[in-house]
């Protein structure tokens, strides 16, 4: 039986504190490539957006599929990685890559 958040906090206060306390990192995207995940975490001056960053600019699945195809055709991503991105898009949806990024977000030094 599924418990509500309040009931969970009453039964497991320490675990609830660990999961939602200070220092908690919210996961709002899925990375299927270690290489892409590492690129996303090592933000440096002159940052080059990853495939995921471009997908996060998309407003719908068709746009995301175009981006994936383009990056694959240009040799920016492998065919295997492109396939995994397409599978994630179909199975988990566009927002599984993270919230939508707005134009100019890379120039502001913010995450979107």
Descriptive notes:
The structure is a single chain. The chain is mainly alpha-helical and 112 residues long. It has a domain of 69 residues. It contains six helices and no strands. Helix 1 crosses helix 2. The longest helix has 14 residues.
Q: Which structural class is indicated by helix and strand composition?
A: mainly alpha
General form? elongated
Tell me the number of helical segments per DSSP (H or I, 4 or more residues long).
Answer: 6
Kindly state the mean pLDDT as a whole number? 77
Proportion of helical residues: 40-55%
Report Rg: 17 Å
Helix/strand order, N-terminal first = HHHHHH
Give the biggest sheet: none
Which parts are unreliable, with pLDDT below 50 for 5 consecutive residues or more? Answer: 108-112
Beta-strand residue percentage: under 5%
* Alpha-carbon distance between the two ends: 37 Å
Number of strands: 0
Give a topology summary:
Layout: H1 5-11, H2 13-20, H3 34-41, H4 51-56, H5 61-73, H6 79-92
Short description:
The chain is an all-alpha fold and 112 residues long. Helices cover 50% and strands 0% of the residues.
Keywords:
disordered C terminus; single chain; mainly alpha; 112 residues; elongated; 6 helices
């Amino acid at each position: 039986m599924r418990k509500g958040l309040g009931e969970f906090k009453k039964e497991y206060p320490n675990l609830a504190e660990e999961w939602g306390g200070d220092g908690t990192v919210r996961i709002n995207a899925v990375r299927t490539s270690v290489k892409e995940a590492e690129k996303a975490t090592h933000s440096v001056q002159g940052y080059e957006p990853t495939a995921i960053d471009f997908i996060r600019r998309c407003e719908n699945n068709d746009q995301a599929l175009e981006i994936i195809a383009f990056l694959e055709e240009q040799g920016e991503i492998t065919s295997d990685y492109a396939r995994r991105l397409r599978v994630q898009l179909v199975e988990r949806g566009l927002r599984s890559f993270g919230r939508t990024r707005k134009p100019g977000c890379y120039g502001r030094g913010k995450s979107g």
